[in-house]
From TrEMBL:
GO BP, one annotated term: methylation
Taxonomic source organism: Orthonyx spaldingii
InterPro entries xrefs: NNMT_TEMT_trans (IPR000940), SAM-dependent_MTases_sf (IPR029063)
Protein name: PNMT methyltransferase
Gene name of the record: Pnmt
Keywords per UniProt: Methyltransferase, S-adenosyl-L-methionine, Transferase
Gene3D superfamilies: Vaccinia Virus protein VP39
Amino acid sequence: EPWQDKQRRLRQRLRRILPIDVHRPEPLGVPLRPPADALLSAFCLEAVSPDRAAFQRALTHVGNLLRPGGHAVLLGALGDARLPVVPLRESDVREALEAAGFELRELRSYAMPAALRTGVDDVDGVFFAHARK
């Protein structure tokens, strides 16, 4: 279907768009009321964090948006990349989630085949994490 129809339907369903700064203890500027049931981050936190410590703090900050028992689904880059991202390993993701107060439910990582390491997809691998607050 035409992209204009998809755009129209999406705009009808959106209630609001909130600016977020994951490096602030209150990423939205104020506590989220009620807290969220779930959050999704896809290739974001490692891209906006200058180092592993900032990545872990960002996880803590976004975790504050969740209700107790809320779920986080994270997708991200592993290893070095041409674009500036924190060069994470699977163990870094595991440790950061634990330090941020999450219970890790599932963590999988996949090596990026050499043939797919082109353009912005030049990372060594990707991770998928499901964690619970």
